[in-house]
Amino acid sequence: MSDSNEVVDFFEIESSANAARASLLPEKSKARYERTYTYFKEWCNSKNVKTINETVLLAYFNDRASNLTSPTSLWSEYSMLKLTLCANENLDISKFKQVISFLKRKNDGYIPKKANIFTKEEITRFLCDAPDHAFLLMKVAMVLGVAGACRTDELYHLNYEDVEIKPDVGIVKILQSKNKIPRSFVVTGCSETVNWLKILEKYMKLRPSNTKESKILFTLW
């Protein structure tokens, strides 16, 4: 094999490897992972760090602990660095036991805030009493979110064509899910006090026929 062929093969392999490394990062949060890695590298440069080891990571997280608002933020940053350092530096920081012990120690005494959750009665009251001219979009988002246990990004990517209204049921297809497996669910009118299907049907009928917006959730007025 000639030297020129060897050079071509090397660049092809390197290009393929770079593509594989890029695919290691979650597509939806790739930018956040890359920002975290870039911030860490800039911190290393500011400290004249030449080799990344456990001592360096301990110092970094000790600095970050004074800036981040909660221990969960530290763990989140650790998780992102673990993946990006593995992809870009071929470094497995999960073997750094002192770093993990430090992060666990930062959790001591921390009580995470619980997210507020709507009760069944609050949901029913909102769907019944809130005026449609101001809250119909929110009502539909609530109906779809509760009926299909949808994530925020699933609702965001839901298109008009993904919802089919039939006489007694609404069929909703979730094509972009977290696990990348399409699924579907139904919205029915069965309720003691409010007809969820009627809310969805009303919203669908009010959609302008000439709109270029493909997403189902957008402001009608």
Automatic annotation (TrEMBL):
Gene3D superfamilies: Intergrase catalytic core. This is Tyr recombinase domain-containing protein. Coiled coil: none annotated. The keyword Transcription regulation does not apply. The keyword Metal-binding does not apply. SUPFAM superfamilies: DNA breaking-rejoining enzymes. Residues 113-221 form the Tyr recombinase domain. One of its GO terms (biological process) is DNA recombination. PROSITE patterns: TYR_RECOMBINASE. The lineage of its organism: Eukaryota, Metazoa, Ecdysozoa, Arthropoda, Hexapoda. One of its GO terms (molecular function) is DNA binding. Keywords: DNA recombination.
